[in-house]
UniProtKB/TrEMBL annotation:
The keyword Transferase applies. Keywords: Transferase. This is Histone acetyltransferase HPA2. Residues 11-143 form the N-acetyltransferase domain. One of its GO terms (molecular function) is acyltransferase activity, transferring groups other than amino-acyl groups. It comes from the Bacteria. It comes from Fulvivirga imtechensis AK7. PROSITE patterns: GNAT. InterPro entries: Acetyltransferase_Butenolide, Acyl_CoA_acyltransferase, GNAT_dom.
Amino acid sequence: MNVIESVRGDFFISTDKKKLDIPLIHSFLTAEAGWCDGIPYDTVKNSIENSLNFGLYKKENQIGFARIISDYATIAYLGDVFIFKDYRGLGLSKWLMDEIIGHPNLQGLRRWILLTSTAEWLYQKYGFVRLPNPDIYMERHNPDVYKASEKR
């Protein structure tokens, strides 16, 4: 898949995995995100390796991230979206979402999914809605999986 980059002043978004600061992403996810506290470094690294990633940068410093899990034909899952607090309120999350939704390999999908408890207002602007039929959805969720991996 081709690397895509977009620039706005001192900021840029890139899908180049080589630019990602994996220790920084891991630090945020394990200690600040709240949705995957304690996630092991190798799990983050593996998730990035197997995803379409969007790094957000100010000059050369990474300040945000999002990733997509997809078959590139029917479905995409948007996850691990964050922008550091000092850079919120600048329109960067909307720009990041524009780049994700507009990515050429993610066009014509039947379904996009995500889980959020904090930024519903943002995702609604991109057509995300609460589940209209939650009774048909199922999940297998293990919220303690990272605690179990600490014991190994």
